[in-house]
Design brief:
The structure is a single chain. This protein is an alpha+beta fold. The chain has one domain: Beta Barrel (Sortase, Chain: A), CATH 2.40.260. It has three helices and twelve strands; from the N terminus they run ααββββββββββαββ. The strands form three sheets. Strands 3-4-5-6-11-12-10-9 form an eight-stranded mixed beta barrel. Strands 1-2 form a two-stranded antiparallel sheet. A two-stranded antiparallel sheet has the order 7-8. A hairpin with a 2-residue loop joins β7 and β8. The radius of gyration is 34 Å and the shape is globular. GO terms for molecular function: hydrolase activity.
Length: 275
């Protein structure tokens, strides 16, 4: 009969619908494959089946910014993480009004010769004691120098409570950066600068000199820097005013090398003088 549909004609609408659904499915799969992965913290059932991204995701680019060095030395503070500043960054600005440096002086010592006469010799004053009330430091100051490789020496491990003044740096109170270092720990326990990392902008440091003068410094900033990228210019660079640098170790202790990976550096400026 003319009005009767063939089997193909009856099946055609179903085939068209199935084809349309298949096409939609293909498009959805294609769109999902282009979407960035979302890390929900779950453990994948089959890690090898997860596609490897060929370009960084926006999350990856954002995280990379966390490793950019700070443009200035941080102020420090309790529970504040210490981070290094860029190598070209200047020392932190003073936290207290500046005081004019003490003019360099020498002391003339007279002694009796073997023949009963007298002789005079000039000697330079030196720092003899340092106190830091914030971290309960009250320690004698010795002298240290550099070895043949130019590495700054440190006080003997047998005297962990002693600090060392770099004898070729300015005398504390005179113009320029004076350097005093000390151990953070020994095999027997904490050493003189064990709590140095707790200092923060505004804390006070006093240095007593052999000529009777007492100079007080105010902390302006503190940082922790890798020994492989030590801020030499910032620590040892010339300065018109009287400045102080305290240095100790920090970071991770390398058992094989018997040393720490980083240095902690405290920056301070002269804020008071007496004597």
């Amino acid at each position: 009969m003319a009005g009767e549909k063939t089997p193909m004609q009856r099946a055609l609408p179903g085939l068209l619908i199935a084809g349309s659904l298949a096409g939609v499915g293909i498009v959805m799969v294609s769109l999902l494959s282009l979407a960035p992965q979302v890390d929900d913290g779950s453990t994948p059932l089959a890690a090898e089946s997860r596609p490897t991204p060929t370009t960084p995701t926006p999350v990856g680019v954002q995280n990379a910014g966390a490793f950019v060095l700070a443009p200035t030395v941080g102020p420090g503070g309790k529970d504040a993480p210490l981070t290094p500043a860029r190598l070209d960054a200047p020392p932190p600005p003073p936290a207290a009004p500046l005081v004019a440096p003490i003019e360099p002086v020498t002391t003339v010592k007279k002694s009796t010769t073997a023949r009963g006469g007298t002789s005079a010799a000039k000697s330079r004053p030196r720092p003899v004691r340092i106190t830091i009330p914030k971290i309960k430091v009250n320690a004698p100051v010795g002298m240290v120098t550099t070895d043949k490789k130019g590495k700054l020496g440190v006080p003997s491990l047998s005297t962990p409570g002693r600090t060392g003044w770099y004898r070729y740096s300015p005398l504390p109170g005179e113009a320029g950066p004076s350097i005093i270092n000390g151990h953070v720990s020994t095999r027997k326990g904490p050493a003189v600068f064990d709590r140095l990392r707790e200092l923060a902008r505004g804390d006070k440091i006093k240095v007593y000199r052999s000529d009777g003068k007492v100079v007080e410094f105010t902390v302006s900033g503190i940082e922790q820097a890798s020994k492989n990228a030590f801020p030499t210019k910032r620590v040892y660079g010339n300065a018109d005013g009287s400045e102080l640098r305290l240095i100790t170790c920090g970071g991770v202790f390398n058992q094989k090398a018997h040393s720490y990976t980083d240095n902690i550096v405290v920056y301070a400026t002269l804020s008071k003088k007496a004597g």
